[in-house]
């Protein structure tokens, strides 16, 4: 069987896509399509805080990459006319890094920590007093000359985003006023996003092409936008004025994704279950060993979409391929 490097294909976000994200990012509630449950909950929190003239509760966003967590943090800042300070978890490797950021916050700022599960525990502990008493306690120097100092912080709101909520420690988790789980989008929401993006990027797209992109997008806005952008590149190369279904299909072929949005690592995982474990049930530990991937990553990053589309079943005795899986991969039972 062909060896696929799962780690490399998943989680990577080319530079090009980062600027695409920025261009297509909605900044108003109206343009933020779908996720009705989250929007409703958030609006209540924001309005209540506004009435009391207080900063709103600290928030935790979690869910798969590309579902709109960062976008929502930007939108909240725009709506509440606050400054957003964006920091990524891995960049906070020392206590001093976070202390410097916290002590530079201004009244009503929003501090957005992306990939919050990658903040090291000793650094994370600084948040506890920052949230509980709006103070941080630091020890300066070492040995007999060391001294403890406390710094007062302004009113601020912390928003953390993560793809791995199980890695956020319970003491931090319990300090958020609200926790929001981001779900996959409805197909018609993705279609609306694709249409909006095409308009912003300034080109025409056939409705069949919109539908094909939505179907292969893994119900994820970022991936839908990426497929749209690649299809546009192809259409331009061919001097076509409109993106049609054929162009989209060709784009999928080149990107090596199929019509359901499965990539090589998804097929690898499913074929492994079928060919090596007789279709399952196979325990996640055996699967982990066979794929050479962390258990949490398999459970939180690879499996959810496969489960969502009914290509994988989680049972008490292990993972199983389904009738649909065999059919889609064209493997006889
Ligand atoms: N609700 C939405 N409506 C329209 N576009 C969205 C929505 N959510 C995300 N997007 C698009 O997807 C891109 C990726 O979203 P992002 O917030 O960066 O995801 P995450 O932070 O969850 O990984 C955004 O730049 C935006 O273009
Ligand atoms: Mg993000």
TrEMBL record:
Binding residue positions for DNA: 314, 319
Key words, A-Z: ATP-binding, Cytoplasm, DNA damage, DNA recombination, DNA repair, DNA-binding, Helicase, Hydrolase, Nucleotide-binding
Gene Ontology cellular component annotations, sorted alphabetically: cytoplasm; Holliday junction resolvase complex
Region Small ATPAse domain (RuvB-S), annotated ranges: 186-256
One Pfam family of this chain: RuvB_N
Localisation: Cytoplasm
AAA+ ATPase domain ranges (all copies): 55-186
Domain characteristics, as noted in the entry: Has 3 domains, the large (RuvB-L) and small ATPase (RuvB-S) domains and the C-terminal head (RuvB-H) domain. The head domain binds DNA, while the ATPase domains jointly bind ATP, ADP or are empty depending on the state of the subunit in the translocation cycle. During a single DNA translocation step the structure of each domain remains the same, but their relative positions change.
HAMAP family for the chain: DNA_HJ_migration_RuvB
Role played: The RuvA-RuvB-RuvC complex processes Holliday junction (HJ) DNA during genetic recombination and DNA repair, while the RuvA-RuvB complex plays an important role in the rescue of blocked DNA replication forks via replication fork reversal (RFR). RuvA specifically binds to HJ cruciform DNA, conferring on it an open structure. The RuvB hexamer acts as an ATP-dependent pump, pulling dsDNA into and through the RuvAB complex. RuvB forms 2 homohexamers on either side of HJ DNA bound by 1 or 2 RuvA tetramers; 4 subunits per hexamer contact DNA at a time.
Protein name stated in the entry: Holliday junction branch migration complex subunit RuvB
Organism of origin: Candidatus Wolfebacteria bacterium GW2011_GWA2_42_10
């Amino acid at each position: 069987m062909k060896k696929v490097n799962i780690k490399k294909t998943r989680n990577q976000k080319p530079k090009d896509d980062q600027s695409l994200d920025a261009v297509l990012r909605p900044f108003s509630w109206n343009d933020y399509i779908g996720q009705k449950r989250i929007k409703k909950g958030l609006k209540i929190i924001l309005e209540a805080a506004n009435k009391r003239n207080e900063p709103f509760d600290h928030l935790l966003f979690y869910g798969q990459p590309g579902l709109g967590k960062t976008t929502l943090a930007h939108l909240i800042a725009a709506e509440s006319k606050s400054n957003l300070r964006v920091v990524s978890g891995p960049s906070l490797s020392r206590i001093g890094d976070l202390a410097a950021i916290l002590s530079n916050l201004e009244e009503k700022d929003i501090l957005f920590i992306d990939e919050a599960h990658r903040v090291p525990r000793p650094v994370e502990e600084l948040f506890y007093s920052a949230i509980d008493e709006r103070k941080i306690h630091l020890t300066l120097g070492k040995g007999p000359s060391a001294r403890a100092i406390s710094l007062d912080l302004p009113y601020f709101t912390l928003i953390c985003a993560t793809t791995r909520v199980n890695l956020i420690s319970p003491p931090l988790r319990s300090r958020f006023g609200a926790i929001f789980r981001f779900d996959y989008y409805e197909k018609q929401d993705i279609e609306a996003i694709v249409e909006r993006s095409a308009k912003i990027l300034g080109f025409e797209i056939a409705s069949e092409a919109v539908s094909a992109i939505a179907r292969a997008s893994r119900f994820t806005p970022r991936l839908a936008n990426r497929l749209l952008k690649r299809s546009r590149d192809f259409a331009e190369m061919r001097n076509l004025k409109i993106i049609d279904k054929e162009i989209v299909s060709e784009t999928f072929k080149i990107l090596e994704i199929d019509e359901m949005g499965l990539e090589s690592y998804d097929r690898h995982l499913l074929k492994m279950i079928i060919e090596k474990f007789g279709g399952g049930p196979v325990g996640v530990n055996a699967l982990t060993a066979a794929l050479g991937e962390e258990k949490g990553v398999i459970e939180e990053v690879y499996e959810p979409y496969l489960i969502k589309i009914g290509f994988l079943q989680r049972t008490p005795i292990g993972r199983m391929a389904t009738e649909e899986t065999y059919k889609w991969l064209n493997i006889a039972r």
